């Protein structure tokens, strides 16, 4: 895939999320030498340099050559990372994309200056294998062609959806940003229970993971709802029914709902704790 200009993508922060996006981009054929990864420690950048990326420890120099600047540091350090970039981004006006949970566009506008084309993105780590799911929201400075370019970049990592309001990104965080962890937690619990029922760890793990894969692929490719797919597994007076009844007796739906509300609340708290100065 070739990106229409702007074409230098600079990542500030090359941790888990940046690496997941970078990997998705490389898999889609985006040239490694058009991507810059910037991190405080060159040691951490070594594998990315070996893949052919341009690497740097200097955020300001890297931002100064960005066409698309992706801010991928923890929310807790975002302000201290952004403030020194003010002059570089005001001089070049790249498209800026934050992947940080919670932090709102108005905070970035305070830290980086006004009139910048900014996108907030909530990606997830399955971007690593091109199976990511991202929510995107753009401010009014982002032009249609720039929106298309950002969408093309994130679509290289999986599903990329625009949402209608910035608030919705906190809901995206609760559903898909943090969502992989919920499924991993479920897998951990199923492997443990499979072992308790007498399977070897190896078999419990293989069966659990392939079941998750099969269920996810079936649900995404099917034209019927997850509820109907569940019904088709659940024979009246059969085995699945007992498991589902047990989940329901233990308020499964409420447990999931409460967890996602807690996630959503935390995104809002982060915005207040870290974005108000
Ligand atoms: N991990 C995930 O599943 C997701 C993470 N995010 C967001 O992505 C952002 C990054 O999270 P992770 O990648 O998980 O964290 P991480 O800790 O793996 O990566 C952050 C990277 O930033 C680097 N860094 C620290 N200070 C820096 C500085 N001054 N300049 C440049 N780089 C610096 C760190 O060395 C580290 O490699 C966060 O804001 C998070 O909210 C969003 C969606 C999903
Ligand atoms: O846990 C977090 O804060 C980040 C944001 C979404 C997924 N991981």
Automatic annotation (TrEMBL):
It is an enzyme of class 1 (oxidoreductase). InterPro entries: 6-PGluconate_DH-like_C_sf, NAD(P)-bd_dom_sf, P5C_Rdtase_cat_N, P5CR-like_CS, P5CR_dimer, Pyrroline-COOH_reductase. GO terms for molecular function: pyrroline-5-carboxylate reductase activity. Pathway: Amino-acid biosynthesis; L-proline biosynthesis; L-proline from L-glutamate 5-semialdehyde: step 1/1. It catalyses: L-proline + NADP(+) = (S)-1-pyrroline-5-carboxylate + NADPH + 2 H(+); L-proline + NAD(+) = (S)-1-pyrroline-5-carboxylate + NADH + 2 H(+). It comes from the Bacteria. Signal peptide: none annotated. It is found in: Cytoplasm. One of its GO terms (cellular component) is cytoplasm. Coiled coil: none annotated. Keywords: Amino-acid biosynthesis, Cytoplasm, NADP, Oxidoreductase, Proline biosynthesis. Residues 166-270 form the Pyrroline-5-carboxylate reductase dimerisation domain. Its EC number is 1.5.1.2. GO terms for biological process: L-proline biosynthetic process. Pfam families: F420_oxidored (PF03807), P5CR_dimer (PF14748). Residues 8-102 form the Pyrroline-5-carboxylate reductase catalytic N-terminal domain. Belongs to the pyrroline-5-carboxylate reductase family. This is Pyrroline-5-carboxylate reductase. It comes from Nitrincola tibetensis. The lineage of its organism: Bacteria, Pseudomonadati, Pseudomonadota, Gammaproteobacteria, Oceanospirillales. The gene is proC.
